Amino acid sequence: MSDRISLERVKKLRGSITPPPDKSISHRAIMLASIADGKSIVRNFLGAEDTMSTLNAFRKLGVKIEDKGKKIIIGGKGIHGLKEPADIIDCGNSGTTARLMSGILAGNPFFSALTGDASLRQRPMARVINPLKEMGAEISARNGDKYLPMKIKGGPLKAINYKMPVASAQVKSCLILAGLYAKGTTAITEPQKSRDHTERMLKAMGANIEVKGLNIRVQGLGNKKLNPIDITIPSDFSSAAFFIAGALIVPDSEILIKNVGMNPTRTGFLKVIKEMGADIKIENIRDVSGEPVADIHCKTTSNLKAVKIGRNIMPSLIDEFPILCVLATQAEGVTEIKGAEELRFKESDRIQAMAEGLRKMGAEVKEFKDGLSIKGNAKLKGASIDSYKDHRIAMAFSIAALIAKGKTTINGISSVNISFPGFFEMLKRLTH
Fold first, then answer.
1. Of 8, 50, 118, 4, whose CA–CA distance to 413 is shortest?
2. Which range (296-300, 347-351, 410-414) has the least confidence?
3. According to the model, what pLDDT value does residue 70 have?
4. CATH homologous superfamily of domain 23-232?
């Protein structure tokens, strides 16, 4: 398969789709089921590259995992049942795998080492290493404990009170998982609310975890057990966002997006596009395995308005930043997105990648340390775009291409398999 695609303007997007299962929940289901006592069933599992990194990692730790496609059966080994891996654990491109696993491995009395691909080896790990060391873990990593590879000699941990400097669901989840192994109650305070799938799942499994606003308290399990789960994973909201945006800006479009996870810590994008005036309806709201789920009905909206987006809402739309930038090019006025400096440390520097690509397509963009301002009503033109092997950049520019004059070529599209295998086929099905 070629690692590039050329796309042109389309007349409309029409139809109904079900995006792939949620990536964040898929990761956590494998991890927590592996340290639960007994057999767990994970239905509608995302079989993408990132989540397979997690699945393969826990196989290396001695967990029996049967992969039956969308259904995964996990023989949980209990909180103290993992075994020392015979080899280095490769986390691929997955920051979630590396950061969350480090919390579990820190509490296990054996040696382990984590690495990843070239991109992951450039992403900051000190944010989990430092608090884990405070809890008593023996960890060292490359370049003064900043980057993978990382080696962990796990053992008894002690509870800490930790005030997180930046909102990060990965760091929070890592410390919650380490807290299960610690003696006493670990208290974590986040600066803004980040996604809470770990907390919801652990509560369902019988862990003693308490959430009040921005404060989380988790009690060490000691000799207690985590109960196994039978969970059905909803469709990924972050994957749905690309099609929501497509429906809003491609003329004469109407899409029904089914079975989408609507966890309030993930849907800041909805709040923002409603403020922009989007023609969108949320239908058939229900609860699936402790997570709110709904169908999203969206139509072309020709009079989108510019918005100002600040730090407080950023954690709940962190993954939607690239596609939000594309929407901003079509809104009336200047959209300003601030408080997003975390995005410089994702699979790529997403702030720089979006600024560069949108300018090539003819948009007026100003870049700040922590975000962008984008002038709306832009007449986009086709260009050659570098996705920097970042799945969300590649997908965002694929949507921009549908309204641009001429041909847009996007390079580095194999990265899309990290979160959304079948994205281009789904897009083609809706294209008329």
1. 4
2. 347-351
3. 84
4. Enolpyruvate transferase domain (3.65.10.10)
**d(C-alpha 341, C-alpha 360), whole Å:** 22
Cα angle 199-200-203, degrees, rounded to a multiple of 5: 85
Give pLDDT, residue 171: 97
**The CATH classification of domain 4-21+234-430, taken from the options 3.30.300.130, 3.40.140.20, 3.30.450.40, 3.65.10.10:** 3.65.10.10
Q: Is 365 helix (H, G, I), strand (E, B) or coil?
A: strand
Catalytic residue among 22, 196, 295, 319: 319
Taking the domains of the chain in order of start, what are their residue ranges? 4-21+234-430, 23-232
Helix pair 391-401, 237-249: axis angle to 10 deg: 20
Burial class for 283, CB neighbours closer than 10 Å (0-12, 13-18, 19+): exposed
pLDDT score of 346? 86
The DSSP secondary-structure symbol of 183 reads E
Closest by CA to 207, choosing from 188, 226, 193, is 226
SS3 call for 316: helix
Strand partners, 321: none
Which two tokens mark 126?
A: 């000190």
Mean pLDDT, the chain, whole residue set? 96
Print the SS3 string covering 144-164. HHCEEEEEEECCCEECCEEEC
pTM for this predicted structure: 0.93
Q: Is the peptide bond before 234 cis (omega within 30 degrees of 0)?
A: no
Cβ atoms within 10 Å, residue 98: 29
Mean pLDDT, rounded, for 363-391 = 97
Q: From CA 425, how far away is CA 181, in angstroms rounded?
A: 44
C-alpha span between 153 and 174 (Å, rounded): 16
Q: Give the pLDDT band (50/70/90) at residue 67.
A: very high
333-361 pLDDT, tens digit each: 999 999 999 899 888 899 999 999 999 99
Q: Report the amino acid identity of residue 44.
A: N
Question: Any alpha helices (H) in 257-316, and if so which ranges?
Answer: 268-275
Active site residue 319: yes
Predicted local distance difference test score (pLDDT) of residue 1: 54
